[in-house]
Amino acid sequence: MAWSREVNSTETNTSLGSSTARYSRWLVASRLACGTSAVKRGFQAAATRREILAAAQGLFAHRGYAGTTMDAIAAEVGVALKTVYLAFETKSGLLRALWDTRLRGDEHDPPVAEQTWYREVLDEPDPVR
Fold first, then answer.
1. CATH code at position 112
2. How far is it, in rounded angstroms, from Cα 107 to Cα 101?
3. Mean per-residue pLDDT for 27-49?
4. Is the pTM of this model over 0.85?
């Protein structure tokens, strides 16, 4: 086998070369696949987080904060209770994340100071309104 014997620098061994090339291609492909699955998992986690926030918002509005359990939120989304706790740690952490998201928007939205509603509040001449 080409791998088990030493090859001097002047020897041309197509078997070794092709095996090395195949291994290199496999290594690059496997690393890309790992990166792709990590990216995919990140997108899935973000989507699940958004679904949890949406379900929590609906349940908080319908049942109130005290009447909504983390278990009910998990059931509404169709995920394990542990998933909700891993994403937000506590019910108050979930409420805080929901409040932040509703105020700021998600990571793709512009900062609050650049959002139209905020500019309208600052430009309002009537402080009571």
1. 1.10.10.60
2. 9
3. 71
4. no
